[in-house]
Predict the 3D structure of the following.
Amino acid sequence: MKIAMTALWTMCTVVVQAQVHLDRSLVLTGTNGAAHSMDGLAPAEQGSALITLGSARNGDHTWAQTGGTPMTITLNMTPPCTAYTPGLSITFMPNADAAGPILLNVDGLGPRRLLRGDRGAVDFGQIGPGRVVQVIYADTCFVLKDRPREGCPAGFLAANDRLCIQQNDTLFVSIYSASKWCLQRGARLCTWDEYIQGCTATQAQLLGLFDDWEWVDDSSDHTHTADQVGRYSCRGLRNTGAVETPNNYGGVRCCYHPR
């Protein structure tokens, strides 16, 4: 800690600086309470340093510079974080859109999961450029402090006030990969009822519609099969093999429920 010490000489004032180590509490006992202060403290550069009012207002001690990839975000703090501790609070601005099983790696301490407050995967639209993100570390993972998004995320259309359907079909994969892909992005495969509702309500705006079969999260009374829909109409339905093989692939169009 640097303390400015003033020595009053005859006809002049000299200000000197020195490093002072205190082995006990510092008590200011002057009669003028307004003068109980320290001036000239620099921003904290070590984990044990004092936080000035300026740093607290600017958020310097919680702000992190962002790098890495969209799904494995690296964060660098000043001073560097030395350990993951419960209550560790970090603020950052992502460089890219991301959703699903996101990892945060702070100052090289190792990747940790980033989850919503309800411990689910990060939703579409919660992480992205220009969006300030606040997280807190608890129980081996980071948790988003902001509330889940309201309304449909980018790339989804509102079928009603409780259902969003993805505008474009995406991958062409097995039922297992399709379900995993949606879940990793905070959404899930549509059920048969949801697909009919979404397809009927937003048909004119959907892309890639009726060009191939798409998966829904329903099964039929047949061994090792699952249901596909939407090849020729919103209500078109068939069952096909659920075995992992290109012969049993289908399109992926996720559904999302706004909170």
